[in-house]
Amino acid sequence: MWIxxxxxxxxxxxxxxxxxxxxxxxxxxENRRDHPSAEQIYREMQKVFPTISFATIYSTAQLLEKAGLxxxxxxxxxxxxxxxxxxVHGHFRCNRCERLFDFSVNVDMVRQITAGIPHNVSGxxxxxxxxxxxxxxxxxxxxxxx
Length: 146
Ligand SMILES: [Zn+2]
Ligand SMILES: [Zn+2]
Description:
By secondary structure, the protein is α+β, with helices and mostly antiparallel strands. Helix content is about 40%, strand content about 15%. The chain binds zinc ion (2 copies).
């Protein structure tokens, strides 16, 4: 996690220009534990910057991702989510309530996967789908066999 001042420094280092709209998006994402959708950030930004476009939201998110500040989560084929936590972790999406949950990913497991790949791996996304404990009514929901 980062605070806005650190994020601005990191963004500058990555060569991006600092604009008030970019700082505005950083302020919305700072200290956030949820995974707001691009549309949600767009609506929240419109309250402060009424003329901002959706394209600006998305291009800024891409800059932030490149600077290592956020992850863009494409677990859903209907919308993208922004995750202010850039550390490697997995995401679980409930097929019924459509909520996103974080889960931790074993670093050794990641190393094992990447060791078997001849390519230069620069990022990882791990997406799991199923029913959350609330929707399945059980404490431990069975992972659906493909
Ligand atoms: Zn659910
Ligand atoms: Zn997450």
